[in-house]
Amino acid sequence: MNLKKILSDFSDLIFPRCCEACDRSLVGNEATICTSCMISLPRIHSNGLHQDIIRYKFVNVPEVISTHSFLLFTKKGKVQRLLHALKYKGNKDVGLLLGFMFGQEMMAAGMLPEAELIISVPLHTRKRKIRGYNQSDLLAEGFSNATGIPWSATVLERIKHTATQTGKSKIARRENVKGVFAVKEHINYKSVIIIDDVLTTGATLEECVQTLKLAGCKSFTILTIALAEH
Predict the structure, then answer these.
(1) What is the pTM of this model?
(2) Do 146 and 100 form a contact (C-beta atoms < 8 A)?
(3) pLDDT tens digit string along 89-120?
(4) Which residue range forms the structural domain that includes residue 26?
(5) Phosphoribosyltransferase domain spans which residues (predicted)?
(6) How many structural domains are present in the chain?
Protein backbone atom coordinates (compact mmCIF):
# COMPACT_ATOMS: atom_id res chain seq x y z
CA MET A 1 0.00 0.00 0.00
CA ASN A 2 1.54 3.32 -1.02
CA LEU A 3 1.74 6.44 1.12
CA LYS A 4 -0.79 8.37 -1.00
CA LYS A 5 -3.48 5.75 -0.41
CA ILE A 6 -2.69 5.54 3.30
CA LEU A 7 -3.08 9.32 3.62
CA SER A 8 -6.29 9.24 1.57
CA ASP A 9 -7.79 6.47 3.71
CA PHE A 10 -6.80 8.34 6.88
CA SER A 11 -8.37 11.55 5.59
CA ASP A 12 -11.60 9.72 4.72
CA LEU A 13 -11.67 8.30 8.24
CA ILE A 14 -11.28 11.71 9.89
CA PHE A 15 -13.20 13.76 7.29
CA PRO A 16 -15.50 11.28 5.53
CA ARG A 17 -16.54 12.19 2.00
CA CYS A 18 -20.24 11.63 1.37
CA CYS A 19 -22.31 11.07 -1.74
CA GLU A 20 -24.31 14.22 -2.52
CA ALA A 21 -27.25 12.09 -3.67
CA CYS A 22 -27.66 9.64 -0.76
CA ASP A 23 -25.25 10.90 1.95
CA ARG A 24 -23.48 7.55 2.25
CA SER A 25 -19.72 7.54 2.64
CA LEU A 26 -17.72 7.47 -0.58
CA VAL A 27 -15.13 4.74 -0.89
CA GLY A 28 -12.04 4.17 -3.00
CA ASN A 29 -12.02 6.23 -6.18
CA GLU A 30 -15.62 7.38 -5.83
CA ALA A 31 -16.05 11.14 -5.97
CA THR A 32 -19.11 13.38 -5.46
CA ILE A 33 -21.66 10.68 -6.34
CA CYS A 34 -21.36 7.04 -5.25
CA THR A 35 -21.34 4.26 -7.82
CA SER A 36 -24.74 2.98 -6.74
CA CYS A 37 -26.37 6.38 -7.25
CA MET A 38 -24.63 6.97 -10.57
CA ILE A 39 -26.23 3.75 -11.81
CA SER A 40 -29.65 4.24 -10.23
CA LEU A 41 -30.33 7.94 -10.90
CA PRO A 42 -33.70 8.17 -12.72
CA ARG A 43 -32.83 8.59 -16.41
CA ILE A 44 -35.32 9.93 -18.94
CA HIS A 45 -35.46 7.57 -21.91
CA SER A 46 -35.53 8.89 -25.45
CA ASN A 47 -38.75 7.13 -26.42
CA GLY A 48 -40.82 7.40 -23.24
CA LEU A 49 -43.68 9.56 -22.04
CA HIS A 50 -41.42 12.08 -20.35
CA GLN A 51 -39.57 12.72 -23.60
CA ASP A 52 -42.91 13.47 -25.28
CA ILE A 53 -43.68 15.96 -22.50
CA ILE A 54 -40.34 17.69 -23.11
CA ARG A 55 -40.95 17.96 -26.86
CA TYR A 56 -44.43 19.36 -26.31
CA LYS A 57 -43.08 22.27 -24.26
CA PHE A 58 -41.37 23.63 -27.40
CA VAL A 59 -43.93 22.59 -30.00
CA ASN A 60 -44.55 26.24 -30.96
CA VAL A 61 -40.85 26.97 -31.48
CA PRO A 62 -39.93 25.31 -34.80
CA GLU A 63 -36.31 26.42 -34.52
CA VAL A 64 -35.90 23.97 -31.62
CA ILE A 65 -35.01 20.81 -33.51
CA SER A 66 -34.39 18.55 -30.51
CA THR A 67 -34.88 18.56 -26.76
CA HIS A 68 -33.44 16.27 -24.11
CA SER A 69 -33.47 16.07 -20.32
CA PHE A 70 -31.10 13.72 -18.54
CA LEU A 71 -32.82 12.96 -15.22
CA LEU A 72 -36.26 13.14 -13.63
CA PHE A 73 -36.57 15.66 -10.78
CA THR A 74 -38.90 14.65 -7.95
CA LYS A 75 -39.37 16.36 -4.60
CA LYS A 76 -37.03 15.00 -1.92
CA GLY A 77 -35.44 12.68 -4.50
CA LYS A 78 -31.77 12.19 -5.32
CA VAL A 79 -31.82 14.58 -8.27
CA GLN A 80 -33.20 17.35 -6.08
CA ARG A 81 -30.45 16.70 -3.55
CA LEU A 82 -27.78 16.88 -6.24
CA LEU A 83 -29.07 20.13 -7.68
CA HIS A 84 -29.43 21.61 -4.20
CA ALA A 85 -25.78 20.76 -3.53
CA LEU A 86 -24.84 22.41 -6.82
CA LYS A 87 -26.86 25.59 -6.39
CA TYR A 88 -26.85 26.21 -2.66
CA LYS A 89 -23.99 24.25 -1.06
CA GLY A 90 -21.25 25.44 -3.39
CA ASN A 91 -20.40 21.98 -4.74
CA LYS A 92 -19.27 22.82 -8.26
CA ASP A 93 -18.11 19.25 -8.86
CA VAL A 94 -21.76 18.15 -9.00
CA GLY A 95 -22.35 20.36 -12.05
CA LEU A 96 -19.20 19.27 -13.83
CA LEU A 97 -19.96 15.60 -13.17
CA LEU A 98 -23.63 15.71 -14.17
CA GLY A 99 -22.79 17.59 -17.36
CA PHE A 100 -20.06 15.08 -18.17
CA MET A 101 -22.35 12.09 -17.50
CA PHE A 102 -25.07 13.61 -19.69
CA GLY A 103 -22.63 14.15 -22.55
CA GLN A 104 -21.17 10.66 -22.24
CA GLU A 105 -24.56 8.98 -22.25
CA MET A 106 -25.84 10.99 -25.22
CA MET A 107 -22.75 10.01 -27.18
CA ALA A 108 -23.10 6.35 -26.20
CA ALA A 109 -26.73 6.39 -27.37
CA GLY A 110 -25.80 8.03 -30.68
CA MET A 111 -27.97 11.05 -29.83
CA LEU A 112 -25.35 13.78 -29.71
CA PRO A 113 -26.69 16.74 -31.73
CA GLU A 114 -24.64 18.42 -34.40
CA ALA A 115 -23.91 21.83 -32.94
CA GLU A 116 -21.18 24.44 -33.21
CA LEU A 117 -21.42 25.78 -29.68
CA ILE A 118 -22.92 25.09 -26.25
CA ILE A 119 -24.41 28.17 -24.57
CA SER A 120 -25.25 28.20 -20.87
CA VAL A 121 -28.30 30.06 -19.60
CA PRO A 122 -26.88 33.08 -17.77
CA LEU A 123 -27.66 34.35 -14.28
CA HIS A 124 -28.10 38.04 -13.56
CA THR A 125 -24.91 39.54 -12.14
CA ARG A 126 -26.65 40.16 -8.80
CA LYS A 127 -27.55 36.51 -8.34
CA ARG A 128 -24.21 35.33 -9.68
CA LYS A 129 -22.41 37.52 -7.15
CA ILE A 130 -24.42 35.98 -4.31
CA ARG A 131 -23.87 32.39 -5.48
CA GLY A 132 -20.33 32.94 -6.69
CA TYR A 133 -20.86 31.11 -9.99
CA ASN A 134 -23.48 30.09 -12.52
CA GLN A 135 -24.49 26.43 -12.18
CA SER A 136 -25.35 26.24 -15.89
CA ASP A 137 -21.76 27.16 -16.77
CA LEU A 138 -20.55 24.09 -14.90
CA LEU A 139 -23.07 21.85 -16.66
CA ALA A 140 -21.98 23.27 -20.02
CA GLU A 141 -18.31 22.77 -19.18
CA GLY A 142 -18.89 19.17 -18.11
CA PHE A 143 -20.91 18.41 -21.24
CA SER A 144 -18.20 20.02 -23.37
CA ASN A 145 -15.49 17.97 -21.66
CA ALA A 146 -17.37 14.79 -22.55
CA THR A 147 -18.27 15.66 -26.14
CA GLY A 148 -15.62 18.06 -27.40
CA ILE A 149 -18.21 20.65 -28.42
CA PRO A 150 -16.96 24.09 -27.31
CA TRP A 151 -19.00 26.08 -24.81
CA SER A 152 -19.41 29.73 -23.96
CA ALA A 153 -20.58 31.68 -20.93
CA THR A 154 -20.21 35.05 -22.68
CA VAL A 155 -22.59 34.90 -25.65
CA LEU A 156 -25.78 35.56 -23.67
CA GLU A 157 -26.23 38.10 -20.89
CA ARG A 158 -29.09 38.45 -18.45
CA ILE A 159 -29.73 42.20 -18.44
CA LYS A 160 -32.73 42.30 -16.10
CA HIS A 161 -33.09 40.92 -12.60
CA THR A 162 -36.43 39.13 -12.29
CA ALA A 163 -38.48 37.59 -9.53
CA THR A 164 -38.26 33.83 -9.10
CA GLN A 165 -40.22 31.72 -11.57
CA THR A 166 -41.28 29.30 -8.81
CA GLY A 167 -45.04 29.08 -8.41
CA LYS A 168 -45.85 31.03 -11.59
CA SER A 169 -48.00 29.76 -14.46
CA LYS A 170 -46.46 29.36 -17.91
CA ILE A 171 -48.02 32.63 -19.09
CA ALA A 172 -46.73 34.47 -16.02
CA ARG A 173 -43.30 32.90 -16.49
CA ARG A 174 -43.16 34.09 -20.10
CA GLU A 175 -44.03 37.62 -19.05
CA ASN A 176 -41.48 37.47 -16.22
CA VAL A 177 -38.58 36.64 -18.58
CA LYS A 178 -39.62 38.74 -21.55
CA GLY A 179 -36.68 40.83 -22.74
CA VAL A 180 -34.34 39.71 -19.94
CA PHE A 181 -31.59 38.40 -22.24
CA ALA A 182 -29.29 40.10 -24.72
CA VAL A 183 -26.54 38.86 -27.02
CA LYS A 184 -23.32 40.13 -25.49
CA GLU A 185 -20.93 39.54 -28.40
CA HIS A 186 -21.03 39.08 -32.16
CA ILE A 187 -21.70 35.47 -33.08
CA ASN A 188 -21.63 33.54 -36.32
CA TYR A 189 -23.12 30.23 -35.21
CA LYS A 190 -26.09 28.67 -36.97
CA SER A 191 -26.64 25.60 -34.79
CA VAL A 192 -26.29 25.80 -31.02
CA ILE A 193 -27.07 23.90 -27.83
CA ILE A 194 -28.62 25.78 -24.92
CA ILE A 195 -28.12 24.06 -21.56
CA ASP A 196 -29.75 24.67 -18.18
CA ASP A 197 -30.34 22.81 -14.92
CA VAL A 198 -34.11 22.17 -14.62
CA LEU A 199 -36.88 22.26 -17.22
CA THR A 200 -40.28 23.32 -15.90
CA THR A 201 -42.44 25.24 -18.39
CA GLY A 202 -39.56 26.06 -20.75
CA ALA A 203 -40.29 29.81 -20.69
CA THR A 204 -36.73 30.87 -19.85
CA LEU A 205 -35.20 28.61 -22.50
CA GLU A 206 -37.72 29.79 -25.08
CA GLU A 207 -36.73 33.40 -24.38
CA CYS A 208 -33.07 32.42 -24.88
CA VAL A 209 -33.99 30.92 -28.26
CA GLN A 210 -35.83 34.06 -29.36
CA THR A 211 -32.90 36.29 -28.36
CA LEU A 212 -30.32 34.13 -30.14
CA LYS A 213 -32.54 33.80 -33.20
CA LEU A 214 -32.49 37.58 -33.64
CA ALA A 215 -28.68 37.36 -33.57
CA GLY A 216 -28.64 34.92 -36.49
CA CYS A 217 -28.80 31.44 -34.95
CA LYS A 218 -31.00 29.13 -37.01
CA SER A 219 -31.45 25.86 -35.11
CA PHE A 220 -31.39 24.95 -31.45
CA THR A 221 -31.04 21.91 -29.23
CA ILE A 222 -32.38 22.33 -25.70
CA LEU A 223 -30.63 20.30 -23.00
CA THR A 224 -31.45 20.24 -19.29
CA ILE A 225 -30.05 18.06 -16.56
CA ALA A 226 -33.51 17.49 -15.11
CA LEU A 227 -37.18 17.59 -15.97
CA ALA A 228 -39.40 18.75 -13.11
CA GLU A 229 -42.20 16.30 -12.49
CA HIS A 230 -45.52 17.96 -11.71
Answers:
(1) 0.89
(2) yes
(3) 999 999 999 999 999 999 999 999 999 999 99
(4) 1-40
(5) 176-226
(6) 2
